[in-house]
Amino acid sequence: MPFRNEIEAFIRDFVKDLNENTASVFAGAGFSIPAGFVNWSDLMSEIAQDLELNINVETDLVSLAQFHVNENQTRSKINRKIIEEFTEDTEETLNHKIIARLPISSVWTTNYDVLIETAFTKANKVPDVKYKNEQLLSNKPKRDVVIYKMHGDASHPDDAIITKEQYEQYHQTHEPFINALTGELITKTFLFIGFSFTDPNLDYILSRLNFRFSKNKRQHYCLVKRHELGDYLNPDQASLDYNNRRQQLVINDLKRYGIKSLMIDSFEEITDILHEIERRFKKNTIFISGSAESYEPYSRHEAVGFVHMLSKKIIENNFRIVNGFGWGIGSSVINGSLEAIHEKPLKYSESQLVLKPFPQFESGNKKLSELWDEYRYNMISLSGISIFLFGSKNHDGEIITANGVIREFEISKELGNVCIPIGCTGYAAKVISETVLDRVDEFFSDNEAAVKLIQQLNDTNEDLIDKVSLVIKILRLVTK
């Protein structure tokens, strides 16, 4: 879908940050509300009743929590509410799942629930959760992401930051968290999601951090929903005008912290934006699918040289490669990629080559064929473009089309990958090329230039090595 210019610019820059491993997300209460958890007003509603106050009138909910503790000299009811509201077995949202699939090394949140860490675990990543100062002193082995829960965890409600006194003392009691966040705000680009301008969390955090920033701040972003006449905050035009004015003042105030507000018309746009970020990031990763028992109509020397050069050029064009070490193909992919990396180690990185050799033995109750299919799905899901070449195997002494490569094409299509078959290499690649060209609208509906180049990739009269430049041209076209 087309995005407004400011959001388009943000997506482009944030994808660059993802590629450089300098992107982070800060999730507020609104990030978990769609999953069924309460907002601050709902959480404090019963507390307000006990104090004989109207939750619809109160805006300073942190003070409300403090009033309750002052009156009762205990926070046991608040603790019980946190346990009741934030320890449910609730399914994470699509937004949680997308964030977990992105290569983000740290996530910050003021939420008490476990949805973020659950999403990363289900994405086969190891989360290292920090909600106490002492947890910052040690690291979880083989962690993929650090999740900083600045205001605590629902499993320890007595330590959850919720009262005014706790917020006032936060810079002393949780100084290590503030130091860690300050460092990340300086070195990473943050996307703030799920923060409303009535959420007391964001105000307290930023006010504690403001004095630590210099004038040269890093650019951060916050997704902000426009007010709409008729919603619960804007029942009439006077309310809408007032809230629009206040929202604009807060947006301008956020600039002090280097936070640029991106206006959206609906919360559904957040999912659209995250989807587009994921799609564009994945397009920088190319899955090379292929196997070769026979290289006909080319010689083995020609074929190996072609795969080697293609892999090298892909790396030199700043793409990543994912490969399952296919028979007769994998070694050339590795050699070509490593040659590019080792020739210019300061420009290219070994992280641009991701190898996923297939399991060779059955595990548990799963048959090898099931393991391979699951493995293929996980491997291809890392990429946004799939290249298919050759695709032959030996079956009882006969050279036939490799059904594994055909299956990788089916999975690629299911996942929405751009599919680029090099038809001249025959076997599975030829079958896939015929399918793509027969259903052009399905695969390249708005890219006639790419279709013409794929047609050229079918020509066996040209030298195979000359196809490398054609593939690179296609990659540039589909990643514009």
Question: Concise description?
Answer:
The chain has 480 residues and is of the alpha/beta class. It has helices spanning 5-19, 40-50, 61-72, 76-86, 94-101, 115-122, 164-173, 175-187, 200-209, 237-254, 268-282, 300-316, 330-343, 368-380, 403-415, 427-438, 440-443, 448-456, 467-478; strands at residues 23-27, 106-109, 127-130, 145-149, 189-193, 220-225, 259-264, 285-291, 320-323, 353-355, 385-390, 392-395, 398-401, 418-421.
Give the topology, please:
Blueprint: H1 5-19, E1 23-27, H2 40-50, H3 61-72, H4 76-86, H5 94-101, E2 106-109, H6 115-122, E3 127-130, E4 145-149, H7 164-173, H8 175-187, E5 189-193, H9 200-209, E6 220-225, H10 237-254, E7 259-264, H11 268-282, E8 285-291, H12 300-316, E9 320-323, H13 330-343, E10 353-355, H14 368-380, E11 385-390, E12 392-395, E13 398-401, H15 403-415, E14 418-421, H16 427-438, H17 440-443, H18 448-456, H19 467-478
Parallel strand pairs: 1-2, 1-5, 2-4, 3-4, 5-6, 6-7, 8-9, 8-11, 9-10, 11-14
Antiparallel strand pairs: 12-13
Helix pairs in contact: 1-11, 2-3, 5-6, 5-11, 12-13, 12-19, 14-15, 15-16, 18-19
